[in-house]
Design brief:
Two copies of one chain form a homodimer. With 540 residues, chain A is an alpha/beta fold. Chain A contains 15 helices and 25 strands. In chain A, a hairpin with a 4-residue loop joins strand 20 and strand 21.
């Protein structure tokens, strides 16, 4: 396993006191690598492993640069800022001197997390980190103690869910950039709120992805739903692994992020002897040992395989927790009777009872939707290793019209669903606005600057809904209207029935925090029985 | 996990006493499936899981048939015989009534195996199973107790290493077919020799592969060196898994095969929660519990990952043993100083000492040839889990001219290499003819009937040797001469220096069998030290 510097970033441009900046980039097939800034250029020297580096006197914070590989210029893969967008130059940024005030902050025990997922662009009218910080009173009053921020890596344009990011180290400029995120984390910690950051290590967005120009970041050994897979186990994969491991370490060390939510790790294709996630765990453990701080690794994983969350000693990858969409699907089908696409695998209340008992609904059964036997049992994994929700950005936004649960079920059913999640022996997660029964949709939106690509997304979106047999027209993902329509309507929370719903959520969260039986998720003490005839679920 | 019938084959055409034959085939996307034989046809009925089946009165052993899917005819994927070659009709074959005489046979403990790899077509002038049986005296006198037969699944034409097989259940007709193999196994058991069969579950040959016409046997999620990967974890993969699992069970149950050697399992791409090999292990264990017989699963695996060979209780896949090419490479580089292609990763004697100590030479180090950190340590795996050799079909035949070790090193060095293998704490394997220092090459040969394909193989072969910087022209793989040139020259064994070499091998094997310290491989008691200056390796 490769050595990784736990103390600082080594990729891109790094600053140090009383020394010139250092530039380093991985380009194993290049013959010459130059860093170009202002009217100046410096030739980098080859290092072991395909890296190139050099001190760059004169390049200071705020300076803009590109790398030139054998005559062609590209932004820095490890860029910390892209002030002119994904195609423009990278900007030197100092992320190591933020005046932190959270010295007394201690990341709460994972089992006490009550999560709140939000999208920076639509959580507030302003769509910035600063605007989130201005709403912390609301979150504190609600009672949640961890926000989970959808991906903030620089994406094309200013409107995107975040999964089209192409600069994993650069914080989206329109959200407030690196310093904006640091301010938000500091403010959250001051209010007792942990920060979970959603990061995408399984694919790159379709526009502004220059990684391939630098080296074999991708492999054609595997295909993912988003094209060729990132190279986690083929020749040269260690540099790709290091690129993402140093990224994770940066968020924890330099941004004080408490936990990462790793997007779709089933699409991290790695058949090598040491899985990428296992290696990541090792280095994060190393960082934690050095700093004395605690950081969690949470995964989204569509495999129902405990290997991901089992401890390293049990030959697992040591991830701390995972989303379980199946709990959602069972709950959703129970509440709405929906049966289209992947919901067709879920029977309703009997499956919901199984989710309470076994976490995985499919732990070895034939899945008619997947056309295969699916999953293995998870009897030994504690409740805090599973994150449940009544809805999330995907389950809302992947509907053609982006309807939240509030548009699909009655107020009373919303309350029942909230109870199902908040009183469960798993970690509950809210989706922004559900606490007041927000009525605005959360639709799919992009702002690709490449017109052809934008049109392809438009068409792809239409095609996708063939599977759902949805009626009507999909909203135009490229239109700014679609984005604006998806913003929370904060005024609602003072109106009925929203105000009552908000009080209901506050009360439930309060109960979860105060009742010993609910405070920490203990799966072993929970019995769940389904009475299908009366659509009755008994938990005791 | 799916249920698998341990008692009999369920796929293809099966015979039972006093009942009509049954035909069954998996074709999940077909609208109509018909079995066509003589002038008769029977329509199959759809079963669960995409299978189709029907009783077929009138179809008896020897009858020829094809399946017709929506109007197009193809041979049976689970055909037991292809008397007219890979494109012709399948033939009903009774493999369950062979008059076995091996009732008292007991598969030896794996740790006592002394393996002998052979290729049926070139082991003898006749190139048949019957001709192998006629040479058992030689093998008994030599002292080996297990032959490993290169793949016998029906391939195009009559000349092939076996890795181009396209009917995993059909024994190559030109070798003697199913009954010929059964006779050979029976004869081996009568002489105290176990039989290991090499099977290919990771790809299909390029000619006569009709699997894709029947259903999603392949997936485009993964690529292998031989094209699209067999579908072990995608939608419908359980039927593909069952196809191969029933195949393994057939060899053990109906052919009394003692062990399977699973070709290149690193190319069995399976990221699901239950790896195919783990499922296979479970069903083979089930069969063993039913019959009271022992069967071993041996793998070829290029991952240096103990997960494959660790016991199921330790979350391994439970394979019994694996080839370790790295021991060979270290030994070869020590003996010959070769440094081309993958040999470039091996330093010679220091790496050989490491192979004795650690089995895997690369157990976490940077591999310059692979351009990545490679492998994990295997401290807990006993010596019998590793199979070593001075040469094998690949290490000889993948050379441009197919030179055996005997053409590359002195007689004395051959003896030293033999000692290195036969006195090792691992399972030794000989490659046919090495015991007398055979001088004939073992070259790459095919007899594809598709002219375009044959030419592509010719060109591919030439291109391949760019990496080895070999001089001269590659022998024509399609020419019958190349095949004939590769046959053993049995007369040599009575001539010098071959007769002496043969006695040397006999003596070494005798020592291994008689000396308690050598009889069973015990890695824990072996110390290996390399003195690089004097090119000296001390084992004690």
């Amino acid at each position: 396993m490769q050595a990784i510097n736990l103390h600082k970033r080594t990729l891109g441009v790094t600053l140090a006191p009383n020394e010139p900046a250092t530039a380093r980039v991985w380009a194993p097939e290049a013959m010459e690598v130059v860093i170009q800034y202002d009217e100046t250029q410096t030739t980098l020297q080859a290092e072991e492993g395909g890296y190139w580096a050099a001190p760059v006197p004169g390049l200071t914070a705020g300076g803009r640069y590109k790398f030139r590989l054998d005559g062609k210029e590209f932004p820095d893969p490890a860029s910390l800022a892209q002030p002119e967008g994904v195609h423009g130059p990278s900007q030197v940024t100092d992320v190591t001197h933020f005046p932190w005030t959270d010295g007394s902050w201690k990341n709460p025990a994972l089992g006490s997390y009550i999560l709140y997922e939000l999208h920076t662009g639509t959580f507030t009218a302003e769509g910035t980190f600063a605007a989130i910080a201005a709403q912390l009173d609301h979150l504190v009053a609600l009672g949640v103690n961890a926000i989970e921020i959808m991906p903030v890596a620089q994406f094309p344009g200013s409107r995107n869910w975040g999964y089209d990011g192409v600069f994993p180290y650069a914080v989206q400029d329109s959200y407030g950039g690196a310093e904006g995120l640091q301010r938000l984390v500091d403010a959250c910690h001051a209010r007792g709120i942990a920060v979970v950051l959603d990061v995408v290590y399984n694919h790159m967005g379709p526009e502004g992805n220059y990684l391939g120009a630098y080296g074999p970041y991708f492999t054609d050994k595997y295909q993912t739903p988003w094209g060729a897979a990132l190279n986690f186990d083929d020749a040269w994969s260690d540099a790709v692994r290091r690129f993402f491991i140093e990224n994770a370490l940066m968020w924890f060390r330099d941004f004080h992020i408490d936990a990462l939510r790793l997007d779709a790790v089933h699409a991290i294709k790695d058949l090598g002897a040491v899985h990428f996630l296992r290696e990541l765990r090792g280095h994060v453990d190393g960082l934690m040992a050095e700093t004395g701080r605690t950081h969690y690794l949470i995964i989204e994983c569509d495999l129902n395989d405990t290997r991901f969350i089992d401890p390293v000693e049990a030959r697992g990858f040591g991830m701390d927790s995972q989303w379980i969409d199946e709990f959602h699907h069972a709950l959703r089908v129970t509440a709405t009777g929906e049966q289209s696409a992947y919901y067709s695998d879920f029977s309703g209340i009997a499956h919901l009872a199984k989710a309470y008992r076994d976490a995985y609904v499919y732990d070895g059964q034939w899945s008619e939707h997947r056309k295969k036997y699916f999953g293995i049992p998870a009897p030994a994994n504690p409740g805090e290793q599973f994150i449940v929700f009544t809805q999330n950005h995907d389950q809302v936004g992947n509907r053609m019209l982006g309807e939240r649960t509030s548009s699909l079920v009655s107020v009373e059913m919303q309350k029942l669903m909230a109870g199902a999640v908040l009183l469960s022996p798993f970690l509950p997660m809210l989706w922004m606005g559900e606490e007041w029964g927000e009525t605005a949709p959360f639709q799919y939106f992009v702002s690709h600057t490449d017109a052809e690509l934008a049109e392809a997304v438009r068409q792809g979106r239409k095609k996708e809904f063939a599977a759902f047999h949805a009626e009507g027209e999909a909203p135009d993902p490229v239109s700014e209207e679609t984005f604006n329509r998806s913003k929370l309507q904060w005024a609602l929370r003072n109106q009925e029935p929203h105000a009552t719903m908000l009080r209901f959520y506050q009360t439930l969260i309060g109960l979860r925090k105060s009742l010993p039986a609910l405070r920490t998720p203990d799966r072993s003490t929970v019995q769940a029985e389904a009475d299908e005839e009366h659509k009755l679920l008994t938990l005791h």
